[in-house]
TrEMBL record:
The keyword ATP-binding applies. CDD domains: ABC_DR_subfamily_A. It holds the Pfam family ABC_tran. GO terms for molecular function: ATP binding; ATP hydrolysis activity. InterPro entries: AAA+_ATPase (IPR003593), ABC_transporter-like_ATP-bd (IPR003439), ABC_transporter-like_CS (IPR017871), ABC_transporter_ATP-binding (IPR050763), P-loop_NTPase (IPR027417). This is ABC transporter ATP-binding protein. PROSITE patterns: ABC_TRANSPORTER_1, ABC_TRANSPORTER_2. PANTHER family: ABC TRANSPORTER ATP-BINDING PROTEIN, ABC TRANSPORTER ATP-BINDING PROTEIN NATA. Belongs to the ABC transporter superfamily. The keyword Glycoprotein does not apply. Keywords: ATP-binding, Nodulation, Nucleotide-binding, Transport. It comes from Mariprofundus erugo.
Length: 318
C-alpha cells in the first residue's frame, strides 16, 4: 500500500508559469521520504496541492487508496502538513493553538498528547506566551506540533528546520524518527541534504517542475553515487591531451592540488583502485597523499540538477 500515489500531477500558475509538469511519484506507507529540488523546483507547489492550498491543473493523487480531491475530508484527517508559511492567531498561546487545531479536525483535544507535543517540541516553557511573542524557531516548532495534533498517518513537512538551530534540529528529527518507527509516513522537503541522506529511506529529486529520479535512498546511492580517488601532488595539475588519453577510463579531473580519478568495478567485480592509482603514478609519479571519497547525496543532487540545493551556499564541492 502506498501512503501517496501521485499520477501526472501538473500545475500552471497564472500567466502560464508551469511549476509542475506530469509528476508521478509513489510514497510507500511507513517510509521517510525526502522530496528534494533546487529553489523554484516545484516542491512547495506539490506540498500545497497535497495540503489543499493550491489547485492542481492536472493529475490524480490518492492517499492510502482514497482520492485526495474527491475525498478531501477523509484525507485531511489522516494528513498533517507543516507549511513553510507561519499562520496562526498571534494572540493564542501554543496550548490554545493546539486545542483549536484539534477542534478543526473534529477531535476532542487529547490533553496528554498535547502536553507531550509541547514537551517534545520544547515549547512547554513557552506554553503561556502568545504566539506573537515566540521566536521564529519556536513558531516553526509550534507548526510541527499543530500538524501532529490529530495523530496523522502521513506527516508532510515543508522545510521544517529552516531557522531552527542545530541542537533543536537534531531533537526534532529524533522525534520524527520515533513517529516514523511507529508507522507514520513522513514526507519532507529540505535544503539540508546531509540530513535528508541520514534520515530518509526514499528520495525524489525534482527540478523545474520535472521529476528527475525517485527511488529508495540506498538504491540511488548505490547506483548513482560514485567513488573518486584523489591524489595530492601539492600543486595544481592541468591535464594534457596525452594525460586525458592515458587516463580516459577514469574520467580524470585536474585540481588545485592534484588529480581526481573516478573509480568503478573491473570485470571480476573488483574496484579499479589499483589500476587508477598505477595509471596516475605512471603519468605524474607517486603522490604526496591519496584517498578515496564516496559521493554523498549532495554530490548526486548537484550532478542531476546541475546546481546546488539552494541559491546561496551549498556550492560545488571540491
Ligand atoms: N502563487 C504563485 N504564482 C505564480 N507562480 C508561482 C506561485 N508560487 C510559485 N510559483 C512559481 O512556481 C515555481 C515553483 O515554485 P515552488 O515554490 O513550488 O518551488 P520550491 O521548489 O518550493 O522552491 P523553494 O525551494 O525556493 O521553496 C517557481 O517558478 C515559482 O516562481
Amino acid at each position: 500500500m502506498y501512503a501517496l500515489e501521485i499520477n501526472g500531477l501538473g500545475k500552471v500558475y497564472e500567466k502560464g508559469n508551469r511549476a509542475l509538469n506530469d509528476v508521478s511519484l509513489r510514497v510507500p506507507q511507513g517510509s521517510f521520504f525526502a522530496l528534494l529540488g533546487p529553489n523554484g523546483a516545484g516542491k512547495s507547489t506539490m506540498i500545497n496541492i497535497l495540503a489543499d492550498i493550491v489547485r492542481p491543473s492536472e493529475g490524480r493523487v490518492t492517499l492510502l487508496g482514497h482520492d485526495l480531491f474527491s475525498e478531501r475530508n477523509w484525507c485531511k484527517r489522516r494528513m498533517g502538513v507543516v507549511p513553510q508559511e507561519i499562520a496562526f492567531d498571534p494572540f493564542f498561546t501554543p496550548h490554545e493553538v493546539l486545542r483549536f487545531t484539534a477542534g478543526l479536525f473534529g477531535c476532542r483535544p487529547d490533553e496528554a498528547w498535547l502536553d507531550e507535543l509541547l514537551e517534545r517540541l520544547e515549547l512547554t516553557r513557552h506554553a503561556g506566551k502568545k504566539a506573537r511573542q515566540l521566536s521564529g524557531g519556536m513558531r516553526r516548532r509550534l507548526l510541527v506540533a499543530q500538524a501532529l495534533v490529530h495523530r496523522p498517518e502521513l506527516v508532510i513537512l515543508d522545510e521544517p528546520t529552516a531557522g531552527v538551530d542545530v541542537e533543536l534540529r537534531r531533537r526534532l528529527w529524533d522525534f520524527m524518527r520515533e513517529l516514523n518507527a511507529g508507522g507514520t509516513t513522513i514526507l519532507l522537503t529540505t535544503h539540508y541534504l546531509d540530513e535528508a541522506e541520514e534520515l530518509c529511506d526514499h528520495v525524489a529529486i525534482i527540478d523545474r517542475g520535472q521529476l528527475l529520479t525517485a527511488q529508495p535512498m540506498r538504491t540511488l546511492m548505490r547506483e548513482i553515487a560514485s567513488s573518486w580517488l584523489w591524489l595530492n601532488y601539492g600543486r595544481p595539475v592541468t591535464l594534457t591531451d596525452e594525460d586525458q588519453v592515458a587516463l580516459a577510463g577514469f574520467e580524470p579531473r585536474g585540481s588545485e592540488e592534484g588529480v581526481c580519478l573516478k573509480l568503478g568495478q573491473s570485470q571480476d567485480g573488483q574496484s579499479t583502485f589499483h589500476q587508477a592509482y598505477q595509471a596516475a603514478v605512471a603519468r605524474f609519479g607517486p603522490p604526496m597523499d591519496a584517498g578515496v571519497r564516496r559521493e554523498d547525496l549532495e554530490d548526486v543532487f548537484l550532478r542531476l540538477t546541475g546546481h546546488g540545493s539552494q541559491a546561496q551556499g551549498s556550492g560545488v564541492k571540491s
